[in-house]
Amino acid sequence: METLAGTNVRVNEEGYLLDFSEWNREVGEQIAQAEGITMTPRHWEVIEWLQDQVKADKALSIRGIKKSGVLDIKEFYALFPGGPLKISTKIAGVPKPKSCI
Amino acid sequence: MSKTKVKKMLFILSKATIENVYAAFIMANGARMEGIEAEIFFTFFGLEAIQKKKMNGLHVATVGNPAMHIPTMVGGLPGMEALATKMMKKEMEKLDMPPVDEFLEILSASGVKLWACKLAVDMFHLKEKDLIDDLDGILTIGDFYNQADQEGTQMLFI
């Protein structure tokens, strides 16, 4: 089993948390750093929204971001460049979205 | 910047049947979601997908498409294309696939460059006002090749 460097937090082979209960902001911060992202309050707002969506059992997609009312797609790409949904969900400690859109 | 070997995907969309248009859109969006640059060059019938008046009325092809499992003669009957298209759109909506106009907005906001082919625009007597507002410009094929002039670029004709 793999763990996040220097912690006991269990992750899968792609680096996504296996158990959300092991997530906290420090864990998120560490994943963000590895992805080259400096977290700001705005980043955390988006992360919390993503976590709420997952808790509410709503599938995450880029169309869902457009309809969210929380942020638009342009800002999403600006906050998490290089694959926004893939990277933000990793930081949020939630599973990688399986949708093709 | 993407960590993959593919850095940029260029799509040439020459058809306006729903299955082809969505193939290009899904692959372009998917590229951006992986951190890969993406551009679409709309040429010939592909231009229908970026014409304000036509883009939400695209059809699936029921004739000459053996995978539809409709006899060709039946596929050619009036209303068959509309019926098959309606059924397909219903399935697509279930999967949360956006309609063409909304999909183009998503692509543009995601940083996908959308180009119209100059030759085809001239041939079909189209004006810039006939095309979507999110269009990045009208290019010659030479201009489009210039967009491909970097390491790790792949080009796909649909």
Automatic annotation (TrEMBL), chain A:
The active site is at C100 (cysteine persulfide intermediate). InterPro entries: DsrC-like_C (IPR042072), DsrC-like_dom_sf (IPR025526), DsrC-like_N (IPR043163), DsrC/TusE (IPR007453). SUPFAM superfamilies: DsrC, the gamma subunit of dissimilatory sulfite reductase. It is found in: Cytoplasm. GO terms for biological process: tRNA wobble position uridine thiolation. It holds the Pfam family DsrC. It comes from the Bacteria. Gene3D superfamilies: 3.30.1420.10, DsrC-like protein, C-terminal domain (1.10.10.370). Coiled coil: none annotated. GO terms for cellular component: cytoplasm. Keywords: Cytoplasm. One of its GO terms (molecular function) is sulfur carrier activity. NCBIfam families: dsrC_tusE_dsvC. Belongs to the DsrC/TusE family. This is tRNA 2-thiouridine synthesizing protein E. It comes from Salinimicrobium catena.
UniProtKB/TrEMBL annotation, chain B:
SUPFAM superfamilies: DsrEFH-like. Pfam families: DrsE_2. InterPro entries: DsrE2-like, DsrEFH-like. It comes from the Bacteria. This is Peroxiredoxin family protein. It comes from Salinimicrobium catena.
